[in-house]
Amino acid sequence: PNFSNLFFFSINKTHSIGIGNEKFIELNGNIIEIGVKISLFDNFEKNKLNPIEHYSKSIGSIGSTSKIFSNKKNFHYWFGLNDNSSLSNDLIYNQEGIFAFPISITDETRNVVFEGISLFQIKSDQFVWVGNITHYNISQTNDIFDIFMTSNYIVSLSNHQLIASQLDFSSSTISQLQIF
């Protein structure tokens, strides 16, 4: 549904997350990519060949993109996380969790307004933005090349930094400790 470069990521037996560029088809037939679109799909038994889109969210404008389009390993999902940051025992059907992926977000004038990792929580079949993590530095390229979660910290690594970001679900904030 209005995607190009669509990638599916299974999060349990019945749900997938789709990430791609949202597209708009002009009257003359030209296709314009108008941002990054993330969607939650139900792919339960009879719908596996044609998953049903439950929820979607558009991010950015023309020119927004993600490194996930060239490397699917840039998508990270931690299942069963809730507001208490504890893992659920329901590993098969629980769809609440956190996912993160690299993104470059542009505004309407095609200027980059953010480059880094965006984190979202899946809650009640919707995406709740948790925060962004960036290693941006004007003097050097600092692409984030790996992230992982430990306890309630997201650790991100770039060629010049390691940042531990603490998640606070109650206020949707991320506190950061930089280690050079």
Can you walk through the features of this model?
By secondary structure, the protein is an all-beta fold. Helix content is 0%, strand content 56%. It is built from no helices and 12 strands. The protein has strands at residues 3-10, 15-25, 31-42, 52-59, 76-79, 97-106, 112-123, 126-133, 144-150, 153-158, 162-168, 173-179. A 4-stranded antiparallel beta sheet has the order 1-2-3-4, with no helix packed on it. It has a 4-stranded antiparallel beta sheet with strand order 5-6-7-8, with no helix packed on it. The chain has a 4-stranded antiparallel beta sheet with strand order 9-10-11-12, with no helix packed on it. The chain is globular, with a radius of gyration of 17 Å.
Give the helices and strands as they follow along the chain.
EEEEEEEEEEEE
Terminus-to-terminus distance? 43 Å
Major β-sheet annotation: 4 strands, antiparallel
Beta-strand share of residues: over 45%
Bin the helical content.
Answer: under 10%
Q: How many DSSP helices?
A: 0
* Helix-strand category: mainly beta
The coarse overall form would be globular
- The side-by-side strand order for the widest beta sheet comes to 1-2-3-4
Enumerate the spans where pLDDT stays under 50 for 5 or more consecutive residues. Answer: 82-94
Spatial extent as radius of gyration: 17 Å
Overall average residue pLDDT: 77
The tally of beta strands, per DSSP, is 12
